[in-house]
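seq:
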Amino acid sequence: MSMEFIEALSEIEREKGIAKDILIEAIEAALISSYKRNFNTAQNVRVDINRHSGVIKVYARKTVVDEVFDPRLEISVEAARAINPHYTLDDIAEIEVTPRDFGRIAAQTAKQVVTQRIREAERGLIYNAYIDKEEDIVNGIVQRQDVRNLFVDLGKVEAVLPLTELMPTDKFKHGDRVKSFITKVENTTKGPQIFLSRTHPGLLKRLFELEVPEIYDGVVEIRSVAREAGFRSKIAVHSRNAEVDPVGSCVGQKGMRVQTIVTELKGEKIDIVRWSENVEEYVANALSPSKVLEVIVYEQEKMARVIVPDYQLSLAIGIKGQNARLAAKLTGWKIDIKSETQAEQEFGRPKSPMSTMHQDSVSID
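struct:
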């Protein structure tokens, strides 16, 4: 070792943020193992690297005893005092045993330790950077694909996008840019592993936060999201400012804001509804674009019976029940939809007195 080596460690400390003392201590520990392995010894040894000159010395550490039974681990009082007259029984005496060619072994070991520590530090920095981005959106470039995953280059790390987390409309090839939602960040022995999704409801929420300044600023809140990725989503919004229309803010002038999100999601239909603490109103809004005549709430069962015009029944239920299913996910209430005629037949409710409930929502295809 040399002064140049110590200076190199100082440079690593400045550039990588790894303390020089930590590196030296790690090298010393590694050199102990190298010494025992290369010189076939079971001695208890200490390796010392001079912090200024870089000079390395190996010391055998032996217990001072009256009678020596194991010369590898013990030293007599007389022999110890020949080294240092202050040694007494049970002290640990240190005798320099630095091998002549230990410098070559030390250089190789130091290089391996430093390289490993730099790699670990870089992995730690990447992990810390991305653990803060968990449940956020990232942009990346598709690198490759196997039978289960797409591998996406995020710059300093490669992330995993399982094929099961792709929307049915997603078709990516090598070199394509992809916007995804970070679902999980793990610190593994191979370094940080980042998992992505294109189907998670959080992706829709983050896209609205990026496109709608009122949401980013906290004036408009996203209260709930229900999503069947690639097909249809519903998002419930609420304004903290009575003068700000939450639905209009999300739609944007001429629908530009929401259309940007629809394009990113490859044509996924999005219903934007006004959240309400009034369950009847909220459920009616959630069934957009269907018109609702009446909502009857059963608190104990957490169920809402909804009555719609006859001609709106199929629209309220949706293809394969999708509209009703998403409305139930969005509100957290079970929803039983009846047509006006069904309600009259089953519950004896007259048609005429029913008036259409006020609904505040918009559906974007």
